[in-house]
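Hello,

Following up on my earlier ticket. Below are the two sequence lines again, exactly as submitted.
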Amino acid sequence: MAGLLSYLLRRILFAIPVFITVSIITFLATNASGNPVELVLLGIHNRTPETLAALNAEFHMGEPIYTRYFLWLSDFMHGNLGQSLYSGTVASKILPWTATTLELQIPALLLSFGIGVPLGVFSAKRQYSKSDVAVTTTAIFGISMPTFWLGIMAIIIFSLNLHWLPSFGAISAFPPYWWGSIPSDALAHLILPLSVLTLVSLATYVRLIRANMLDALRQDYVLGARASGLSDFNVTYKHALKNAITPVVTIVGLSFGSLLAGAPALETTFSWPGLGYEFVVAATSLDLPVVQAITMIITIMVLVANIGLDLVYALLDPRVRIS
Amino acid sequence: MVRAVDGVNFTVEKGVPLGLVGESGSGKTVTALSALRVVPRPGKFAGGKIIFDGEDLLTKKESEMRKYRGRRIGYVSQDPNSSLDPLFTVGTQLSEVVQAHEKVPKERASERVLELLQRVRISEPEARMRAYPHELSGGMRQRIAIARALAGEPDLLIADEPTTNLDVTIQAQVLDLLKDLQRELGMTLILITHDMGIVAEMTQKVVVLYAGRVAEVASTRETFATPKHPYTSALLKAVPRVDRKKELVPIGGNIPNLITPPSGCRFHPRCRFMQEICVAKEPALDAIGGGRQVSCHRWKEITLEGTSS
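Thanks for your patience. The regenerated structure is below:
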């Protein structure tokens, strides 16, 4: 247990320089894309020296760039994400965006993992059978088609032609609600983007699990376990699957980090007001504080997800702990 | 379809340790895995019979077959580095096999595991039970693989090159262990190997396989003293001996590709006694008296060098 703790501590220490590096790059890149004071002044018609002075003070324009960086970082660490160049504080906007993204991404992750793993095992057990070919073909289709194309196809078929489901947004802004109530309305909006997202990530899991299972089933320990009289079920689901699933944990961890980033393409296709969509909007309108905040939050989430992942990996695979 | 083993026919007598000999790819392992019906996909049985204790295993249902695996026939695989699941402790892996053979509570199963570990002479068995395979040496892992094969107290133990990946001193220990276990438990051993030295030490009967077919069957002593098949003789000449100053003679060429096996006798491209008939006609496995069998057109005409074991 002490080994596991120091392992975890090492992982956390490794994350700090990554965080600092990303913050420097983010700060420099956003500042290089424009002077925030001038960007704000574009939107102000009656410019007084007072507003100019206030703006310069807000963005610490009198200070050299490295001082500004530290001031910005310190604000960030204190939870002060600053003001959007357009309206409101960044913090008040990011929270609902994050929630909307997670509302889509977490069910997608659970569904694609929950369906993908058994499907991959099923496929591997029946390698080259008709059902295996059907599963793998669908998986290749899911991986190969761009997300936005699948999204557009889904909209054309199920919204435009069949009128079964809404085509954009997370809720209806005003009645009539889909299927009568507000919760059912949210559900109706969720179905299309969730299905597309699930199909895409499902395909990844199916292919990975299938390949890893095929590999695991060929190992000597599987042969040894079967030859010593263990049931096929036990050998497949206890021994082979645990070995096959361990590397997939990496992928889950990585996609957990990118959950927060949302899928910008997918969110944009469905105008889903999540972090990914709003990041695209903020970047195109040069809303620099928003871009900075979203980038940093995604960075933190990726780092946290990676540490969590290392921990799960060490728990699953005893060989990892020694290094 | 590739026939990895074809027309392999031999008998194992109770209590007579048998060596299954041949180069890599000659079908030794497939023969052994067939007896347990655990040939990996896409392998399958095109035909034949595997009679164990009067019953044909190939006609058994999968559920019946499980009563044979481990309980009647034990199997120790080649590579101790991969024969145990890296993600479970030794204790877990052994006790699940114990529990697969007899319905016993957990505590009783761990007692059995402890007995098994002591039986294969593992030092500090309690500590080893909690260890993961990667924390143990190759020799120790092989002993644990043997313990797993013994868990169901099988009548027949198939050891598939049990010492290939071990260093020489550990090899000797593992072989000694296998010898003692046969005596203590009254098991019959099938030893798969390409090492004629191990064959001489461990077995009383030898089946020589070549390219998925039986080349020769004889008692170990006769195999070494008067080999009848040119391949057996060639194998013997390729064994290094410390006590004799003699050139090693390698067998020229490679084992044939079984997708397109050679016509006639499969050994003919590498045989120095090859004649037209060897290319044209496949030799039958003839009984030549004294319980010996040989599959060679010319065994009567040629004299082959043996070696005193």
